Amino acid sequence: NNMLYPREDKENRILLYACRRCQHQQAADNPCIYVNKITHEIDELTQIVTDVISDPTLPRTTNHACPKCKMNDAVFFQAQSARGEDRMTLYYVCRNQRCVSCDQRGMQLIMFA
């Protein structure tokens, strides 16, 4: 086994790489031993096109008012995260052509759940 493991020299305050089987050790070139990179996946619902409001195959409702324009005309659909960890959510999209500002998800449609 030729693996060297990180070890701290507390007296000199330096990072070393040392062998667990023998006494071999060497100074580390870089003091960073671990990097945790977090990447955020783009929510697939941000890819909704504006044609969804005129899609004749989507059901429509007049029972839910848009939080922005208060119009009672929306299409709705169910969606789940691509990860499959989230429960199914019912999304409503306002059908008002003038109601196109960005909501908290960054969409160009007013969508509410």
3D architecture notes:
This protein is mostly beta strands and 113 residues long. It has two domains: 1-38, N-terminal domain of TfIIb (Single Sheet), CATH 2.20.25; 44-112, N-terminal domain of TfIIb. It has no helices and seven strands. The strands form two sheets. Strands 4-5-6-7 form a four-stranded antiparallel β-sheet, with no helix packed on it. A hairpin with a 4-residue loop joins strand 1 and strand 2.
Largest sheet: 4 strands, antiparallel
How confident overall, as mean pLDDT?
A: 76
Number of domains: 2
For the record, the CATH architecture of the largest domain stands as Single Sheet
CATH topology of the largest domain: N-terminal domain of TfIIb
| Strand residues, percent | 25-35%
Furnish the topology, listing elements before pairings:
Layout: E1 5-9, E2 14-18, E3 25-27, E4 60-61, E5 74-79, E6 89-94, E7 111-112
Antiparallel strand pairs: 1-2, 2-3, 4-5, 5-6, 6-7
List keywords for this structure.
113 residues, mainly beta, N-terminal domain of TfIIb, 2 domains, 3-stranded antiparallel sheet, 7 strands
Describe this structure in a few short sentences.
This is TFIIS-type domain-containing protein. The chain is 0% helix and 26% strand. It has no helices and seven strands.
